[in-house]
Amino acid sequence: MIHFVLLISRQGKVRLTKWYSPYSQKERSKVIRELSGTILSRGPKLCNFVEWRGFKVVYKRYASLYFCMCINQEDNELEVLEIIHHYVEILDRYFGSVCELDLIFNFHKAYYILDEVLIAGELQESSKKTVARLVATQDSLVEAAKEEANSISNIIAQATK
Amino acid sequence: MNPFSSGTRLRDMIRAIRACKTAAEERAVVRKECALIRAAVSDNDNGYRHRNLAKLMFIHMLGYPTHFGQMECLKLIAAPGFPEKRIGYLGLMLLLDERQEVLMLVTNSLKQDLNHANQYIVGLALCALGNICSAEMARDLAPEVERLLHFRDPNIRKKAALCSIRIVKKVPDLAENFVNPVVSLLKEKHHGVLLTGIQLCTELCNLSEEALEYFRKKCTEGLVKVLKDVVNSSYAPEYDISGIADPFLHIRLLRLLRVLGHGDADASDSMNDILAQVATKTESNKNAGNAILYECVETIMSIEDVSGLRVLAINILGRFLSNRDNNIRYVALNMLMKAVSIDDQAVQRHRATILECVKDSDASIRKRALELVYLLMNETNVKALAKELIDYLQVSDQDFKGDLTAKICSIVEKLSPDKIWYIDQMLKVLSEAGNHVKDEVWHALIVVITNASNLHGYTVRSLYKAIQKSADQATLVRVAVWCIGEYGDMLINNIGMLDLEDPITVTENDAVDVVELAIKLHTSDLTTRAMCLIALLKLSSRFPSCSQRIKNIVTQSKGSLLLELQQRSIEFDSIIEKHQNIRSALVERMPVLDEATFSGRKTGSILAPAVSTINSASGVAISAAAPLVDFIDIGADEPAAASPTSSGGNFLQDLLDVGTTPIPSQSGKTEAQKSGTDVLLDLLSIGPSPPQNSSSAPDLLSLSQDNKTSVSPLDSLSLATVPAVQASSTAMMDLLDGFGPSPPPTNNGPAYPPIVAFESSSLRLTFNFSKQPGSPQETHIEADFTNKSSDVYTNFIFQAAVPKFLQLHLEPASSNTLPGNANGAITQKLRVTNSQHGKKSIVMRIRISYKLNNKDVLEEGQISNFPRDL
Description:
A: Beta-Lactamase; about 50% helix
């Protein structure tokens, strides 16, 4: 099981956090501080796993962003690397060669996509296409609702002119 | 509409925050935004609620408090439209966690949304429930989720399956409800549903033995077939990862098969072929393939013995181990740890490679490899492996040395073939990484040294040589100083030479030099210096010619700011100067320390062994010093006399602590007290040597109770010797001619006699007190309840109340049932902090309730007979 997902920039700024196990706000910031300290200081050629408080943190760096997932001792680290890559590819497809700025300004989108990939710390979907389709459908639902709201307010505006 | 909130869009806020040059600027921007959002919240502004929540989420990610936004999430979730719900649920998952009470308020909305006509809204609700639901919500909403496992759209089914995992984790009782739906999920073709169904199935198997049996019978065949199909499936672009169709599904199937096959030969047998196929056919040049192989190896290791497969698995690990990719090597080491218990020989073959990994530049790999080497050690290879590790100790990273040292010490201790080897290796470790060695380790070393009587000379000479090279390793210095104090004469005279040794010439002055250097070294701490003082006292008798020099060194500590050192040096100085006739008897060599006692203690607290080793180390000499201490206390001013006990960390006091830790070698003193005249001389072992038979703690305790009044004011160290002091105070005064006759000291100390705090016809409550050095205000009380009647008390509850100047902390009781006829007791620990320590003494009101033959009984009372100065 994945206990939490963190996206940390090379400067140590948090770009996304998702907690599947209960951590209080105080613990959360402590965890982030500790982990960004250990992970950011590791050299490029070292392995992608860090042992931490009896758990393992699997991380992978993409450009300026570190994607980290915390798992149990007995979980498959190599697979988690694959899950990270899976998520990154979906982000890439969604944003069109994703960069850190996309994730900053559209952080909620990154969360929506993550929610289609993981639930309760377990993998939900192994097909990138399906995830992309589901997110797109929901986005279009939002767009449709917005347009509707706009057209209604236009009608009201015209009627009250 | 609120005029404030119309201000910035989300994008603009993020931009403004990013433009901040300093943290202070950022805080200002965030504060302003938060103020606006709060205003909007209190105005109940509908129009911009979702934008405000999005802003709050961003602010939350930056680490600012956003609790005021929690209710906004609930309002958005309760809104009818999809966009509001979408952002509302996102906020809910981000800003709240399962432990917040607010979450309960959302249960109703979730229930409605789980039944919503729009499947995407159902999906949102499932996702939120799966990520943050609490046990109560799980109970309330489980029926809805169960129903959704049969929903027409597969995307809802898969979400419901994962949501069920969370539910059964929170409420394991619900597991059986999900067993049947899972069987149908496992037959699905949709990968998402299959994937999540398998995970749910694995979880159920872990939770319930019944479910495991059921699935093992019903589904093993089917799952093996599914795995076969996936392995042999043709290229499917949707699921393909580096040439493998859906590695995630592979891995999850293998994991479930592992659970099903574990402990069941038939099930293991049925998956034999496909496991062999996966292990041999999977491409290992990409990460995805390796992930599958890794999972497959773990499955092969866990299922029932199919020896051909095990060889295959170990070979894969061997290949992994020689891989150049660090990740692969890491997982190989990880898996080999599990393989050790199955096939030790096969893993031993890779010992050389593993040993190389201990020296890797990557901390994670080093740590794994070290643990593995530790497991691989046995009597036959310990010498070679320990040598490698100790050699590596010289060049390893500073932050790795701690781990490495601990492991080496533990191995050497556990597997040493003989004492000389053990002592040699420990000396090497102490010289290389003495600062990382834990107290228990060097205490154990001293115990072993005292027991190896033929090696005393060899040890002290090796230590002398070692300390010339590495005087900066604290623990090496301690052990060396201790040994030089004990066996200094052997060092000088080359006594007990072994064949392999070269004789060395050390003069008496050289030996004293070592101790002098150690006591003067600025890095030496109180413990080391205290040990040095004792060593000096011993040497003063062993080397009469250096006596004057030693006296000078001891004198220098008279001005030490550390009161303990100051006090001891004054005492030792007086012994060296005035009491030459008894000095040699005082500083006789230590009796052999009992290894069994020591190892028994080691499992207890960490402090205890320290006390026991040292205290027995200083043995006879110190028992004489103890009364001295008390008398010197009297001579000094009252506050000064009180301070050594309250100053805390008084190592020397622990060091001199004779009474509280009765060990066989000290029993003589207890005997001596009873014998009456010339008691002190007995103590100083000038008279006939006291019998060395054992006397136990009860002896001491009963003694102290008899003498309650005189014991309590005294230091713990004089517990046993108090009567002696009184009985022979004239002798004492002769001995300490400098100090006039005085009444017994009245300073407080860390030991107090136990009291009977409460006694009724049916119940007795005794309190035992102890204090932690360093916190005189805090008293630890151990309450023992004894049942005086013949009936059993159940639902036993003890409550206590204290006045305001006290703080009371009650720890859970050892039991809530108290058997009759004083046949067993309940103990409960209390911690009382006295803020008026020294001014007011502790009082306590208690209430004890229990059930006697199903009738409630209540007893109350007040305890005011606490020792005065707690």
